[in-house]
Amino acid sequence: MSALLEVSGVTKAFDGFRAIDNLSFTISEPELRAVIGPNGAGKTTFMDLVTGKTRPDKGTIRYGEMSTDLTQLSEARIARAGIGRKFQKPTVFEAQTVRQNLRLALKGVRGPLAVLRGRNAETARIAALAEQVGLQEALETPAGILSHGQKQWLEIGMLLAQEPRLLLVDEPAAGMTTAEREKTTAMLVEAARTRAVVVVEHDMEFVRRLGCRVTVLHEGRVLAEGSLDHVVADPEVIAVYLGREGEAA
Ligand SMILES: Nc1ncnc2c1ncn2[C@@H]1O[C@H](COP(=O)(O)OP(=O)(O)OP(=O)(O)O)[C@@H](O)[C@H]1O
Known about the structure:
Layout: E1 2-14, E2 17-29, E3 31-36, H1 43-50, E4 58-63, E5 68-69, H2 75-80, E6 83-86, H3 98-107, H4 119-132, H5 148-161, E7 166-170, H6 178-191, E8 196-200, H7 204-210, E9 213-218, E10 221-226, H8 228-232, H9 235-248
Parallel strand pairs: 3-8, 3-9, 6-7, 7-8
Antiparallel strand pairs: 1-2, 1-4, 4-5, 9-10
C-alpha cells in the first residue's frame, strides 16, 4: 500500500466562506475509504477539487508516482490520469441495453487496455464487467427498465471499464433496498482490492458494512479518522454529527 492521493493544505472559499479549510489527508492504493460528515461538511467540494471541477485557493493535490499536482490539470486530463467519479444519480443510456452501455464505456478506455481489440476480447471483457456488477443475466435488457439499484451498478460497471486507479463514489446506497445495498457493498469492496475507492456516504450501516477506514469531515477539515468504531466513539464526532442525527431522528 502506498500513497496514491495526497491532499495538502487545501482551502476553497465561496464568497469568503471556507467550504474546505486547510484540508490534508492521504488515500493509499489499493484502499477502500469512506468519507462521512454532516451536511455542508465539504464532501462534494472535496470531490470537485480532486476531479478538477473546482480549483482550490491554496494547497496541492498530489497524485500517482510522479506526484502530479491535480490542481494544475484540466478535468479531462484528470479523468485520463485514471480518476473516475460516480455521481449520486445514475447516468446510463436508458434506450441502450446493458451490453451496449458497457461497450460504449469500453470505447473510452485509456492506456494499455486501448489495445483491447477484436470482438471476442470485447465480448469477454463485457461479460466480466457485467459479472463484477451482478448484471450478467441482464446483458440484453434496456437500461431504462433496470431497477434503480441495477442502474447504479451498471454505471459502476461503466466506470470500471475505464480501469480507474481512483474511483470516487457519491452516496451509492441512496434509494437502494437492503438487498441492493449488500450487493453494492460487496462490489465496492471487490473493486477496492486493486484500486483506491473513496465512498461518500451518509448511511452509517452501509459504512459499517464497508469495513474500511473512515474520514470524518466537518467544516472543511478532517475531524477524525480511523475505524468506524473509533470515529463514532470520538466526542467531537458525536457532538457535531451523530448527536445532530440523533436529534433529527
Ligand atoms: N458553488 C458554491 N457556491 C457557494 N457555496 C458553495 C458552493 N459549493 C459549496 N458551497 C458551500 O460549501 C459548503 C460545503 O458544501 P458541500 O456541498 O461540499 O458539502 P457536503 O459535505 O457535500 O454536504 P451534503 O452532505 O449536504 O452534500 C456548504 O456550506 C455549501 O453551501
